[in-house]
Amino acid sequence: MKKFCKRMVAVGIFGMLLIGMLWRTNNILRVKGFSAGYSMETFYRQTSGTVDVLNLGNSHMFANVNPAILWDEYGITAFDLGAGLQPLWNTYFYMDEALKYQTPKVIVVDLFGAVQTTDYLTPDRTAMNTLGLAYSETSKENIAVSVGNENDYMDYILKYPIYHNRYQDLEEGDFRKDEGDINYANYKGYALNCISTTSRKMLTDVSGVSERKPLTQKNEKYLKKIIEKAKSVEIPILLTVNPYADITYEDKKIYNEVEKIALKYNVDFIDFNEFYEKIGLDPMRDFAEGHHLNYYGAEKFSSYLGEYLVKHYNLSSHKGESGYETWQANSEFYTKQAENIDLIKTTDEAEYLRKIFENQKRYTICLSCDGNYYQEGRTYLDILAEQGLNVWNEHIWVIKNGEIVYHTDKRTGVPEFKLDLGKCSVAIVNRKLNLGTNRAEVVTDGLNVLVYDNELQVVVDVCGMDASQEGVIRERQL
Question: I want to staple 369 with a disulfide (CB 3.0 to 4.6 A). Which of 34, 112, 363, 373 is the partner?
Fold first, then answer.
C-alpha cells in the first residue's frame, strides 16, 4: 500500500511538472505583440467600468489614436482595441467580446477594413485577429468566420498548433515577464511604432468624390452587425475613417457607401480625410508612410478627435479620480517615449546635446572624443564645456543619472570598463566605446554619443558629430 501511495505521489508530481513545462512552453511560443492579440490581452486587465471610449479597428486606429493624448487634454479614458489589418468581421467579434467586460459611453470604429475585398486573410493575419480572444462562444464564432479552410478550425481553437514551430523566431522578450514591457500594467493599446517621417508635397483631396461603390457582401454584413450591436446595448457609435495619405478615389467611393448605411441607421460617420487642414496635419512632417500617421500626426489627430468626442458625447474628465491611475501612468510613460523619439529625430547638434543633458537624471550618457575631434569653433565642444567637461584632450565619459561613473583622459591610459544596464551593457574596450559587443562608433574624427534610458530600459540613440561638419550623424535616419 505504501509503495502504491508513493508511486501515485510520484505520478502526481510528474504530472504537475509536465503540465507546468507545457504551460511555460506554450507561454513562450505563443504569438505576441500589439498586432497579435496583445491589445485584447491587456484589455482584459482593465478594471470594469473604467473604459469610457472604446476605439476599434486595425492599425489605422491603434497607430493613429493615442489614449495618452486623450487623457492629458480631456481626461478621457480610452482604449485602442484591434489588430493588424483587421477586417470588419473580426472588429465585430472584438467589440462583442469587449462589451462583456466594459460599458463604454461611446464606441469609435475605424472603417479602413471596409475597403478590403478578400473574405479571408492570410494565416498570419488570421492568427493576429483571433488568438487574443479568451476561449468562449465569441472566440469560436470569430474563428469560424475567419478561416477559409474548415480543416484549420481546430488548430485556431487549440492555438498551440498555429505557433508551435516559432522556435526560430523567438526573441528575448518571449522569455521575459510581461514580454519585457515595463508599461504592461498600464498599456492602453496605442502602438508607438510609426515614428518615421515620409514627407509629401500634398495630400489627396477626396472631398469632391460623390460616387458610391458597394462593399463586399461579407463587409456589409458585419458593418451592419457592428451598428446593430451598438444599438442593442444603447451605446452611441461613431464610425470613422481615420486619416491616411494613400487614400484613393476608389476607397472614397466605398466610404460614401458606408456613409449611406450610417445615415440609414441614424449613426454618426466622419471621414477625417476631409479635415486635414482643420486637424492641422502637415504632409511634410506628420505621416509615417502611406497608411499611418507618425507620432507627431497622431498627437494632432488624437487632440482633434478628443475635442469632437467631448463636444458630442456624454464624457467627463476622470483626472484626479481614484481608480484611473493607470491612465496617468500610461501618459507619463508615453511622454518619456515621445521625448526619446524627438531626440532621435533631432539633427542640430547643439539642440541635441542640450536635450540629453536636460534629461541626464533619467539617461545614461556615453561620450567619446575620438581621433582628430578638436576643431576650433565646433558646436559640440562649446556644449561639452558648458557642462564643465574638459574638451582639451581625448576623453571618454559615462554619465548615469546625472553622475559621472567613468571618465578617462586617453593620454593617461584607458582602463577597461563595463556597466550593465538591464537589457544591455556599455563597455570601454580597446580604448573604444561599445554597446554590448558592438562598437558604438559612428564617426572616426569627432564626438560619438550613446544614450540609454534607465527608466524605460531602452537604447535611445547611437550617433556621432563629425569634426568636419555640423549636425548629428546616424547610420539610419528616421
Answer: 373
What is the mean pLDDT of the segment spanning 278-291? 96
Give the torsion sign (CA, 279, 284, 287, 289).
positive
204-215 pLDDT tens trace: 999 999 999 999
Return the SS3 of 208: coil
Contacts of 6 (CB under 8 A, 6+ apart): none
- Which residues 6+ apart lie within 8 Å of 283 measured at CB? 199, 200, 201, 202, 203, 245, 276
What separation in angstroms does the CA of 318 have from each of 51, 77, 107, 326?
11, 7, 18, 11
pLDDT in tens, 44-54: 999 999 999 99
Separation CA 54–CA 232 (nearest Å): 16
> Has residue 157 got a pLDDT over 90?
no
Q: Is 100 helix (H, G, I), strand (E, B) or coil?
A: coil
Using an 8 Å Cβ cutoff, are 473 and 464 in contact? yes
**Of 25 and 383, more confident:** 383
DSSP H helices in 239-324:
249-265, 276-279, 295-312
CA pair distance 440, 343, nearest whole angstrom: 18
Tell me the C-alpha distance between 471 and 241, whole Å: 39
Nearest to 304 by CA among 138, 65, 139, 468: 65
pTM: 0.88
Alpha-carbon distances, residue 376 vs 124, 331, 348, 354 (angstroms) = 56, 43, 18, 20
How many residues in the chain? 478
Spatial separation of the C-alpha atoms in residues 164 and 127, rounded to whole Å: 13
The set of cell numbers assigned to 167 is 522556435
CA–CA gap between residue 329 and residue 331 (Å, rounded): 5
- Residue that is written with C-alpha cell 492602453 in the block: 188
Q: Which amino acid is residue 309, in one-letter code?
A: L
Q: What is the pLDDT of residues 342-385, one digit of tens each?
A: 999 999 999 999 999 999 999 999 999 999 999 989 999 999 99
CA distance 385 to 387: 5
- Phi, psi dihedrals of residue 323, rounded to the nearest 5°: 100, -5
DSSP H or E segment with residue 354: helix 349-358
* 22 DSSP 8-state letter: H
Contacts of 164 (CB under 8 A, 6+ apart): 29
C-alpha cell of 14? 510528474
Tell me whether residue 352 is exposed, middle or buried, using C-beta atoms within 10 angstroms of its C-beta: 0 to 12, 13 to 18, 19 or more: buried
Round to whole Å and give the CA distance between 5 and 13.
Answer: 12
Q: DSSP of 88-154, one letter per residue?
A: HHHHHHHHHHHTTT---SEEEEE-GGGG---SS--HHHHHHTTTTSPSSHHHHHHHHHH-SSGGGHH
C-alpha cell at 187: 498599456
